[in-house]
Design brief:
Layout lengths: L1 H17 L25 E8 L2 E8 L7 E2 L6 E12 L7 E12 L8 E8 L4 E11 L4 E11 L8 E6 L2 E3 L10 E6 L5 E8 L27 E8 L2 E2 L2 E2 L3 E7 L2 E10 L12 H4 L7 H7 L5 H13 L2 H22 L9 H9 L4 E4 L3 E6 L8 E7 L9 E3 L6 H12 L1
Antiparallel strand pairs: 1-2, 2-6, 3-4, 4-5, 4-7, 7-8, 9-10, 9-11, 11-15, 12-13, 12-16, 13-14, 16-17, 18-19, 19-20, 20-21
Helix pairs in contact: 4-5, 5-6
Length: 419
């Protein structure tokens, strides 16, 4: 009897020792997603609902970011890495629909690939919307990277059911940033016959006001969308006819239901990089007066106008080059991170990111983000809250909660760029 009690007690202790606390995205500081300097590894993910009841998650990792260790018995170097995922019913939910952990290895070769690709599949229900919380770990270096990805299956025409192809070797999954004047075909997850309507909207010139300026439009902040072109794409066995697109915002939707669709961005050649585009000058609006901003467009050469502005602001060419690199790196990153139905630099999050830099902490809920900055040499202390605006064109559009008390903080941050 005594031995039996000991065995039961040991079994209970073993059970509790193997139980791990539930990892939830709502408890994570996601600042590393907006600041590459905080990451040793920076995995990227793509989502494709390849079947009605299943989703394919593809992981891309730069092998240069992994630590390869020489095998004790063989003459080669091996990396070991692990992907864990937790499928929640929503970002704030405690209800876990699924979870798993997979370990991978890679052997270092003389001619390494530019990136490693690994794919996992898991069951997902149609008509649902999940939050996929991922945790990537380099097991040799003991470093990790966490992310939260929305799996959108609320209807069968979300962007994650489609793949764009320029040719057999070029496939693009959402988000869709497409180069201009290229022939693209679209592949659907299943070999079905159907039609998609497409509306093409001109790009908007909206530039957010500073965070201390309160105006009525901040409540909705969705510009009126009037299409200047429309067409229909015919799908046969899940593949569309080819189409050539020009600059604009494309909204594809079920032919009989304009509420069920997805967006494709084609803002300018080279997007999300702003080099060579009008956005080189337009993105300076945050640190220029109204008069300075108008003068920028008096020159026929945008690059000359941009360099002239920075040379006059910085006082010497070396500092000007430093500021140019820093400023436009942030503009380009804002496009990658925050683009919605407008380029990322034209959003509230993009504005704050460009002027203040990557936030020191980022905490999220289903529909909010809270950014905190701690005071430093070039950053004043500040906290900003952004609310997601529900609309059919983008699930990535957030609006800042503006406040007049931000005036001094904003002016101080802008002055750092100008002194």
């Amino acid at each position: 009897m005594y031995i039996r009690r000991i065995l039961v007690l040991l079994a209970i202790l073993s059970l509790f020792s193997t139980c791990r606390p539930l990892k939830r995205p709502v408890n994570v500081n996601f600042a590393h997603l907006y600041n590459s300097d905080l990451n040793v590894v920076q995995p990227e993910y793509s989502i494709f609902h390849h079947r009605t009841d299943s989703t394919k998650l593809t992981l891309y990792i730069n092998p240069d970011e992994l630590l390869y260790i020489r095998d004790a018995t063989e003459d080669f170097f091996t990396s070991r890495f692990q992907l864990s995922w937790y499928l929640f019913e929503s970002f704030d939910s405690r209800n876990l629909a699924d979870s798993a952990r997979v370990r991978f290895t890679d052997t270092l070769t003389i001619d390494p690939k530019p990136f490693l690709e690994r794919t996992v599949k898991f069951a997902t229900l149609p008509g649902t919307r999940y939050t996929l919380f991922t945790e990537f770990e380099d097991l040799n270096r003991r470093t990790r990277h966490q992310d939260a990805i929305t799996l959108e299956k609320s209807h069968p025409y979300t962007s994650q059911f489609f793949v764009f192809s320029e040719n057999k070797n070029s496939q693009i999954t959402a988000p869709f940033f497409l180069p201009l004047q290229k022939n693209f075909g679209i592949t659907y997850a299943e070999a079905l016959n159907f039609e998609l309507s497409a509306h093409v909207y001109p790009t908007h010139d909206i530039i957010p006001a500073p965070p201390f300026v309160i105006h009525d439009s901040q409540i909705i902040h969705i510009p009126e969308m009037i299409a200047d072109t429309s067409f229909v794409l015919d799908f046969r066995d899940g593949r569309s006819s080819l189409f050539t697109h020009r600059k604009g915002l494309y909204y594809f939707h079920e032919k009989e239901n304009p509420e069920l669709g997805f967006v494709v961005q084609a803002f300018h050649e080279g997007f999300p990089n702003v080099s060579g585009s009008d956005d080189v000058l337009r993105s300076l609006r945050y640190i220029t007066s109204a008069g300075e901003y108008r003068q920028l467009f008096n020159y026929n050469d945008p690059e000359f106008a941009m360099e002239r502005f920075w040379n006059r602001s910085a006082g010497n060419p070396d500092r000007a080059r430093e500021l140019i690199n820093r400023y436009y790196n942030r503009v380009n990153n804002a496009n990658i991170l925050f683009t919605s139905f407008v380029p990322g630099w034209q959003t509230d999050r993009g504005m704050i990111y460009i002027i203040f830099g990557p936030p020191h902490s980022v905490f999220k809920t289903e529909n909010t983000e809270t950014w905190r900055y701690t005071e430093g040499m070039n950053v004043p202390s500040a906290t900003f809250t952004f609310n997601r605006i529900i609309n059919k064109y983008s699930s990535n559009h957030y609006v800042l909660e503006r406040d007049p008390t931000y005036r001094s903080t904003w002016n101080h941050a802008v002055s750092i760029w100008r002194r």
